[in-house]
Write a structure and sequence with these properties.
The structure is a single chain. The chain is α+β, with helices and mostly antiparallel strands and about 100 residues long. It has one domain: RRM (RNA recognition motif) domain (Alpha-Beta Plaits), CATH 3.30.70.330. About 20% of the residues lie in helices and about 30% in strands. The protein is globular and about 35 Å long. It starts with a strand and ends in a 20-residue tail after the last strand. Pfam families: RRM_1. Keywords: RNA-binding. This is RNA-binding protein.
């Protein structure tokens, strides 16, 4: 088990510091980041928390998964590595020219 956790179904009002405070009850929080939409600046409803040790991460999963925050049940589990995105091309359907 690693130290990095995925936290989903966050209230849209949740900030990095809110998440850090919520998870500090289970050990030291190395980092807490709510993912924000680049265009609107609003939370995307998920984020990542890095705990100080795998044991603290496991305790945080057990203590926070399903917990109600702002009327939403949190989803907390071990973060998986990011999968490479398929596709590519930029804007015009991948065609060169108009």
């Amino acid at each position: 088990m690693g130290n990095k956790l995925y936290v989903g179904n966050l209230p849209y009002s949740f900030s990095d510091s809110d998440m850090q405070q919520a998870f500090e009850a289970f050990g030291s929080v190395t980092s807490a980041k709510v993912i924000m939409d680049r265009d609107s600046g609003r939370s995307k409803g998920f984020g990542f928390v890095e705990m100080g040790s795998p044991a603290e991460a496991q305790a945080a999963i057990e203590g926070m998964n399903g917990r109600d925050m702002g009327g939403r049940g949190l989803v907390v589990n071990e973060a998986r590595p990011m999968e490479p995105r398929s596709g590519g091309g930029g804007g015009f359907g991948g065609r060169r020219g108009y």
